[in-house]
Amino acid sequence: MTLAADPLVLGIESSCDETGVALVRGATLLGHAVASSVDEHVRFGGVVPEIASRAHLEAFLPTMRRACEEAGVTLADVDAVAVTAGPGLAGALLVGVAAAKALALALDVPLLGVNHLVAHVAVDVLVSGALPERSVALLVSGGHTELLDVHSPVHQGRQGVGAMRVELLGQTLDDAAGEAFDKVARLLGLPYPGGPHVQRAAERGDPAAFAFPRGLTAAHDLRRHPYDFSFSGLKTAVARQVDAHRRSLEPGAELGEAFVADVAASFSEAVADVLSRKTVTAAQERGVQTVLLGGGVAANARVRGLLAERCEAAGLDLRVPPLRLCTDNGAMVAALGALVLADGLGPSPLELATDPGLPVSTIIV
Amino acid sequence: MLLLALDTSSAVGVALLEGERVLAQEQHHDPRRHGELLAPSVRSVLAAAGVDRRDLGAVAVGVGPAPFTGLRVGVVTALALGEALGIPVHGVSSLDALAASALAAAPVSARGPLAGGFVVAADARRREVHWARIAIDGGADALADPLSGWRRTAGPAVDTPADVAAGIAGEGLPAVGRGAALYRDTLPGPDVLAGASGDAHDTVELPLDPDPGVLGALVARRLATGGELLPPRPMYLRRPDAQVPAALAGR
């Protein structure tokens, strides 16, 4: 199959609670739209898979129409359809993948089932024009905390040797960073999703008020898990602190704004410290010059700020896409679709199966 | 008009029709692989009939009721095909399609066991069935045409087989479909009907799932002469399983 020099790629994302559709030509984002079901999950304190899956189906056509309208294209103009094949929630992934297959079939264009995590890296193309030849990527969201070593040679188009390659350096052994924010928010009586609420509370707090643990940073842990993360111990330490404080209060009394602010600030500091420290170390130890940050937790000012500070101190380049491209969206999927096409990879078969646990080394299924 | 019919309420079924006439069809019973099987089946049904996708005039889709995940595959596929090809998408009750499929499976002469009305039941999982009660209007004459001459007089609903049986007790209605076959002790009914020849060995199996060709013909008929068509949205009948955590309850 021959494709125009700059194919128009439609990207579809449905791995969690965001339905995203976008159109990308080369390294240019022409239009994108995202519908979120986050409001429907608030009262459950976390994403309910069945609710998310239902919402994807409801949102799919309207979201795709908005994206096409913004891009000023019609579906007939589309040269390839890229879709998140995994990792993610099984039922949620299935909606996007089934839709993508139907579009590829109806439009007679290639189907590209791609990796959600690698798409978080690929989105940088839309901001920077090209991926760095080598980078360490920190992906942090409500579902993911991964540290990746990304090879993306500029001489693309040679299948295999020239193609993008991704290696998993480390990941969380328990909670994702965003999940830790949600759990701590709940402990502090703050609403879901926790990230923005914890950040707002933290602004008025003292980040040194409590010395919360930094998971997997002790010497013996570092030997076995140099680039892995753990946030469950941190969450437990926060819970203990809250319990102790509650015992000091009259029964039924509020935790108090100052206490909540101090816990939020100290917790955020612990998360930002571990994330940035391990990321910078990984880049230095691997001799990589560029660090990429992606995922919804990139919205956290302290995580972004401390990473920027430490990257600068270490002489590393940090790339952080605009927030709307850090959270889950179709643009990142379309961007990766455009990259794999340029690398001469794909298409995926129409029999493509979703893979909720798709390893990050598999860029296209 | 060329109509593409899809149903993923239980099996994965795809048919291509011209009017009420089936040109090609496929059906696979593999409850965990709807997402993998549907699109390739659409492609192979189009190829078998030698039809270009751009010549399709409409898409018909069974909207359940059905367990959640597989059903969504059919509905979103229908929606995306309709959008990309610029053609309308019509939803129809998968239980209606199952009723028509049961009648269509047997020759007219053998439809007697269903002449007094029957129950269609699909597997809703969790030891429940999706079901509806079908009444035949006007006796034997009505049986001649599986696409009309009958009405749904109860359902669609989701209940335990015992509750369905209790509800139709005394009416003595036979039950058909996968949901009945799974709970035969509770929901009796014929699994086979006599064939056209009258020979005792000549029998026809009643369908367990909606036949996609019959579903398509039912939609074609209802488009032409009226009858219930539904928006292409899943009929779940159940709320999502989700518990409000104790810490959040009462807020």
Automatic annotation (TrEMBL), chain A:
It catalyses: L-threonylcarbamoyladenylate + adenosine(37) in tRNA = N(6)-L-threonylcarbamoyladenosine(37) in tRNA + AMP + H(+). One of its GO terms (cellular component) is cytoplasm. Keywords: Acyltransferase, Cytoplasm, Iron, Metal-binding, Transferase, tRNA processing. Residues 29-334 form the Gcp-like domain. It comes from the Bacteria. CDD domains: ASKHA_NBD_TsaD_bac. Pfam families: TsaD. Its EC number is 2.3.1.234. The keyword Chloroplast does not apply. Its cofactor is Fe(2+). GO terms for molecular function: iron ion binding; tRNA N(6)-L-threonylcarbamoyladenine synthase activity. GO terms for biological process: tRNA threonylcarbamoyladenosine modification. Fe cation binds at H116, H120, D328. InterPro entries: ATPase_NBD (IPR043129), Gcp-like_dom (IPR000905), KAE1/TsaD (IPR017861), Peptidase_M22_CS (IPR017860), TsaD (IPR022450). Substrate binds at L139, V140, S141, G142, G143, D182, G195, N300. Required for the formation of a threonylcarbamoyl group on adenosine at position 37 (t(6)A37) in tRNAs that read codons beginning with adenine. Is involved in the transfer of the threonylcarbamoyl moiety of threonylcarbamoyl-AMP (TC-AMP) to the N6 group of A37, together with TsaE and TsaB. TsaD likely plays a direct catalytic role in this reaction. NCBIfam families: gcp_kae1, T6A_TsaD_YgjD. This is tRNA N6-adenosine threonylcarbamoyltransferase. It comes from Quadrisphaera granulorum. The gene is tsaD.
From TrEMBL, chain B:
Residues 32-163 form the Gcp-like domain. It comes from the Bacteria. Gene3D superfamilies: 3.30.420.40. One of its GO terms (cellular component) is cytosol. Coiled coil: none annotated. Transmembrane segments: none annotated. GO terms for biological process: tRNA threonylcarbamoyladenosine modification. Pfam families: TsaD (PF00814). This is tRNA threonylcarbamoyl adenosine modification protein YeaZ. It comes from Quadrisphaera granulorum.
